[in-house]
Write a structure and sequence with these properties.
Layout lengths: L1 E5 L5 H9 L1 H7 L5 H12 L6 E7 L2 E10 L4 H7 L10 E7 L9 H16 L5 E7 L3 H9 L3 E7 L10 E8 L5
Antiparallel strand pairs: 1-2, 2-3, 3-4, 5-7, 6-7
Helix pairs in contact: 1-3, 5-6
């Protein structure tokens, strides 16, 4: 069973180990010193930022991280997409990683995404869509999104997380289900 809770400061050593894993570092390209992890994840963990950093759990055991944000809370994020794709009012985004290398390639990414998409519609009644830009070279990530029901709606040019990559990204989207 997949569940989650807000990332807390005592989780930072685990998150740091995950960020150091080659399969994570390739796409997240994040500083991993204790100070950098505290600097970058501390404000959300303390509720000082509107984004959510969620520790993902499988049967109660941590396996990954999922970040959930509203585009309205980070206008610069939407500005980079402006003119390349429609960003509907109320749109949200997610980013995620599976930190435990023994759990990669087992369908957990798709299950995690499906679970958070369902929860987003309940947690954020004003959410209209979830848009996720993914570097086109990160096939495992965009395939997990597609398997979870998101569809590719555009190719966009964005600053890559890793300076080794070009600007080519796919934008995937899922809309709030219509209710009668």
């Amino acid at each position: 069973m997949i569940s989650w809770r807000r990332l807390a400061e005592p989780d930072f050593p685990l998150l740091r180990r995950w960020l150091e894993q080659p399969h994570v570092a390739r796409w997240w390209n994040h500083e991993t010193s204790p100070e950098a992890v505290a600097r970058d994840f501390g404000p959300a963990a303390r509720g000082e930022e509107p984004s959510e950093d969620l520790l993902m759990l499988l049967d109660g055991e941590p396996f990954g991280l999922l970040q959930r944000t509203r585009f309205a809370d980070y206008p610069e994020y939407g500005d980079e997409l402006a003119g390349q794709a429609e960003i509907p009012r109320g749109a949200m985004s997610i980013d995620y990683l599976i930190g435990d290398p023994l759990r990669v390639g087992r369908g957990l990414g798709t299950r995690m995404i499906r679970a958070i998409v369902r929860a987003t519609w309940a947690d954020y009644p004003e959410a209209t869509a979830i848009l996720v830009p993914v570097h086109r070279g990160n096939q495992a990530s965009w395939r997990a999104l597609e398997k979870a029901g998101l569809r590719r709606v555009a190719e966009v040019s964005l600053e890559p997380d890793n300076p080794l990559d070009d600007r080519g990204h796919y934008l995937l989207r899922i809309d709030r289900p219509q209710t009668d």
